[in-house]
Amino acid sequence: MFALDQRLQQDTLVIGDFPLCRLLLSNDSNYPWFILVPRINGISEVFQLDVADQHTLWQETTALAQWLNEGLAADKMNIGALGNVVSQLHVHVIVRKRDDAAWPAPVWGKHPAQPYTEEQLVAIRSRLRELLPADFIFTQG
């Protein structure tokens, strides 16, 4: 059974599942900040995935970035897999806008996280239901 790293559990909200990856939302309303985590235990590097899963990870990452870019009017999409703090393989997909709290600097450690309100979560989930494909499996919420 797939196990999500404790730190990711603590800092994110589960949105649902693509065929390979769990989609998380960083609980920081300063930025629309999403995280894709392949649902395979014991993986910390992209090259540890088999070739088919590497392709699926990249397809899910780029498709998500495109949907968010168009649907949330990004000025720039930031995509990265660092893993220095959380070693479980995960890919950040962050919508950046010129008027966001950290622009143009990286988002990490710039400002204290502002947790989403229930109203904001309802709105972002509703928007994602419009943007994501029909085969995306949303969690309850």
From TrEMBL:
Pfam families, sorted: HIT
Gene3D superfamilies: HIT-like
Top-level taxonomic group: Bacteria
InterPro entries cross-referenced by the UniProt entry: HIT-like (IPR011146), HIT-like_sf (IPR036265), HIT_Hint (IPR026026)
Domain HIT positions: 1-103
Signal peptide start-end: none
Protein name per its UniProtKB record: HIT domain-containing protein
Native species: Pseudomonas sivasensis
